């Protein structure tokens, strides 16, 4: 309630101040622009035109007010990344951090400007060009990408050295203010979020929202070999040293905001390859935050895990997971010994199973993994029955990643599913994660997401011979049901892409599916599999596929996926003249 009243109070203060009032005409202009934005602008060229016109239309001296305006802030947040060099510089020069931090809407605008400036400052698209030119940056080499996000757009642009320098100065100006005021900003939601954006920008990492509203990370060091300034690295390391000196440092792990801050600091230091400072930070977290008092080490079965400080609350647990991800081998071994080794089975079958999954994900030492593997596989049947399938998936993924214990994993899961002697139902048991006696009674195929992912990783094991043979022995009708299932279609991808499954086995699967090609073409997911089959097929097998489809052209044209397949495979050409289709295929081969 306090937060809401505070926000409301600020809004009222802005609207009552005569110096913070936009005139009626400009307010109407903002509403019209927002309509265009909400109606999904068609392409990046149009977005660029709209935002450039918008920034140029902002009356001088009210830039910050527009950033704090309900509609203006949304327009800027969505489109500022598509602005020209001149307009981006013009707008950001007017932003004063100390004012914007007090307004939630403007905070998002400032955060977006930070991200865009980071991409532009670290841009390597035109790295060899050092000449300052009078003209605006060169146009994109390719056509505008429809509906790309602002980060994708900026990564593919050319920027003058002058503009890169300006963006670096802007980042330093804003981030230095943030860091100098970190102890007060860290307590608020918007301030804390800005601090994390600041740290990640120094490391070349950006959080972006995709079209489905999920948040993904872009690491500019990975996609454009961006070089981080030494000054940025020094600022982050100095901040870490400063944080370690805070008298309340031991309490940071147990508060949601401060824990998230430490997690971000961890990731930033790791991405900047500052191992010494990272090791020091993680050592302090483990010792000052998580080390239990010796007086409280009495154990009882009921609450033994909760007595361990890292598991006393969610923020602390999430911080421990972050430390596991970025710490060195010695620290990881200490974490495993102190917090997991004696409690692993209890944790696997409780709400802490998610932390066990992270432990397995970050394990690199094969001796530690063998200990974990032995304990988890001994209870695999119970874990599957109790719905703790994520732990089994994590174990399978680690076997794949480490190329270790793969054969034993297959034996263990088949035993847990009671199908080790079955000749016909192994695949169904794995993808449903149900024992054989239940699968035999079912008439419909069930695909569990974790089961599908487990099978996909098994197909990438070094010797998945038994699984491959069982898959090839399945009825084509059942396989087509799996391949047409949203959770099952990627099983075909894993089969085709695995370097341990030979060309003959791939050809067998494609031929095995004869009679099911039309069914797959009429399915969104199945058509994806059919297209991969077609690409891998010999010319003779391609003709078998197209011939089957040509016999049902009316059905093929009755749905979007069928129409796409018909177009890509040139089914209409084959229907009219098979010889012409063969000649067309031969010409493309050349």
UniProtKB/TrEMBL annotation:
<dbReference type="GO" id="GO:0000447">
    <property type="term" value="P:endonucleolytic cleavage in ITS1 to separate SSU-rRNA from 5.8S rRNA and LSU-rRNA from tricistronic rRNA transcript (SSU-rRNA, 5.8S rRNA, LSU-rRNA)"/>
</dbReference>
<dbReference type="InterPro" id="IPR001313">
    <property type="entry name" value="Pumilio_RNA-bd_rpt"/>
</dbReference>
<feature type="repeat" description="Pumilio">
    <location>
        <begin position="512"/>
        <end position="547"/>
    </location>
</feature>
<dbReference type="InterPro" id="IPR016024">
    <property type="entry name" value="ARM-type_fold"/>
</dbReference>
<dbReference type="InterPro" id="IPR040000">
    <property type="entry name" value="NOP9"/>
</dbReference>
<dbReference type="GO" id="GO:0003723">
    <property type="term" value="F:RNA binding"/>
</dbReference>
<keyword id="KW-0677">Repeat</keyword>
<dbReference type="GO" id="GO:0030686">
    <property type="term" value="C:90S preribosome"/>
</dbReference>
<dbReference type="GO" id="GO:0000472">
    <property type="term" value="P:endonucleolytic cleavage to generate mature 5'-end of SSU-rRNA from (SSU-rRNA, 5.8S rRNA, LSU-rRNA)"/>
</dbReference>
<dbReference type="Pfam" id="PF22493">
    <property type="entry name" value="PUF_NOP9"/>
</dbReference>
<dbReference type="InterPro" id="IPR011989">
    <property type="entry name" value="ARM-like"/>
</dbReference>
<dbReference type="GO" id="GO:0030688">
    <property type="term" value="C:preribosome, small subunit precursor"/>
</dbReference>
<dbReference type="GO" id="GO:0005730">
    <property type="term" value="C:nucleolus"/>
</dbReference>
<protein>
    <recommendedName>
        <fullName>Nucleolar protein 9</fullName>
    </recommendedName>
</protein>
<dbReference type="GO" id="GO:0000056">
    <property type="term" value="P:ribosomal small subunit export from nucleus"/>
</dbReference>
<dbReference type="GO" id="GO:0000480">
    <property type="term" value="P:endonucleolytic cleavage in 5'-ETS of tricistronic rRNA transcript (SSU-rRNA, 5.8S rRNA, LSU-rRNA)"/>
</dbReference>
